[in-house]
Amino acid sequence: MSSLQGKAAVVTGGSRGLGRALGLALGRAGARPVLVARHPEPLRAVVAEIAAAGGEAHAVVADLADRDAAASIAGQAAALVGPIDILINNASTLGPVPLRLLLDTDCEDLERALAVNLVGPFRLTKAIAGSMVLRGAGTVVNVTSDAATEPYPSWGAYGASKAALQQLGRIWAAELDGSGVRVLTVDPGEMDTVMHAEAMPDADRRQLAPPERVAEKILAALAEAG
Question: pTM for the full model?
Answer without folding.
Answer: 0.96
